[in-house]
Specification:
Helix content: 10-25%
Order of helices and strands: EEHEHEEEEEHEHEHEHEEHEEEEEEEH
Structural class: alpha/beta
Strand content: 25-35%
Radius of gyration: 22 Å
Largest sheet: 8 strands, mixed
Number of helices: 8
């Protein structure tokens, strides 16, 4: 538990913004160091890793689902007595005596002696005119979240990296056909995943192609939609290749074209580089006592292992700062 001040506010030793792998790891190490920890998260515990079907590259764990991995971390955090605060951070403000005040979007305030920013990144948007209107109505950024809605249907996955390849493989087990749309000639994901994709009969590769429009029901004839019954929302897409536009009948579109940071609210306490938070080797920002960990931090490699490493480093550095 934190310490109450004269205004009856609780002041925590470490306030962690974000409950993904980096944030949960930081909470574990902070609590084990004897510090009071508050973990702030607007959604479910686990962050982006919960949208991953299988994890096969974490040392010591040969095969685990993203949800199970996240639940294991969250269970440890709860057993250690960390305080879980639902809410979305809207900013960090410096107070007298070196205290930091985390303001939430519901105007609640969390006071901490140190802060670890572990907000991760957000899915990059497709950029077509109809994107917002079809989001959640046939257009998704998470196959493991929404794939079951498209069982035995035709869907499209957009992207050329590991995320897109993994999404296509996952959906191939549920759907009739997966169109994997890549605007480049080759894929930049792991060779192992590329080989699996090439051996999967119901995944059709469409390279040098990009979606220019998403079509809804009633926006033209759709023999497939008539035969199979499109879900409310998307009935097809318009695809551009070498200057020629063609139509594909699909019920769902899954966007997997990478992630981007949204760290502007922290620019008053941290320097940003291409939107990512700049830190030193101890994950500390330009403001003493404020750290960043995980994918939100400016670095070259963003993997599950590096998120856990960042959380460890940031928590131990915060604990040392508190001494």
């Amino acid at each position: 538990m934190g310490i109450r001040d004269n205004d009856l506010r609780v002041t925590y030793d470490i306030g962690i913004i974000g409950a993904g792998t980096a944030g949960l790891t930081a909470a574990i190490y902070g609590a084990r160091a004897g510090r009071s920890v508050a973990l702030i998260e607007p959604g479910g515990w686990g962050g982006a890793i919960t949208t991953t079907d299988r994890i096969e590259n974490y040392p010591g764990i040969s095969d685990v689902s993203g949800i199970d991995f996240a639940e294991g971390l969250a269970s440890q955090v709860k057993k250690l007595g960390c305080t879980l605060i639902p809410g979305r951070a809207a900013g960090i403000f410096l107070k007298e005596g070196g205290l930091k005040e985390i303001v939430l979007d519901n105007d609640e305030k969390v006071c901490a002696r140190t802060v670890i920013i572990a907000v991760g990144t957000h899915p990059r948007r497709l950029g077509v005119p109809e994107e917002e209107s079809f989001a959640g109505r046939g257009l998704s950024y998470c196959a493991t979240c929404d794939g079951a809605f498209y069982r035995n249907r035709r869907v499209a996955v957009v992207g050329g990296g590991n995320s897109a390849l993994s999404e296509a493989l996952y959906l191939s087990k549920l759907t009739e056909l997966v169109y994997l749309i890549n605007k480049h000639e080759t894929f930049n994901g792991e060779e192992k995943l590329v080989r699996e994709i090439e051996k999967t009969d119901n995944v059709k590769l469409l390279c040098n192609s990009e979606i220019v429009h998403i079509l809804g029901e009633g926006s033209g004839s759709s023999a497939y939609a008539a035969d199979y019954g499109a879900l409310p929302g998307i009935s097809g897409i318009e695809l551009k290749k070498a200057g020629t536009v063609s139509r594909l009948d699909v019920s769902g579109v899954f966007v997997a074209i990478g992630y981007e940071p949204k760290n502007g609210i922290f620019s008053n306490v941290a320097d940003l580089e291409n939107g990512y938070i700049v830190t030193d080797e101890n994950c500390e920002t330009r403001t003493r006592g404020i750290f960043a960990a995980g994918d939100a931090r400016s670095k070259k490699v963003r993997q599950l292992t590096t998120a856990a490493a960042d959380g460890t480093i940031a928590a131990l550095a915060a604990s040392k700062y508190l001494k």
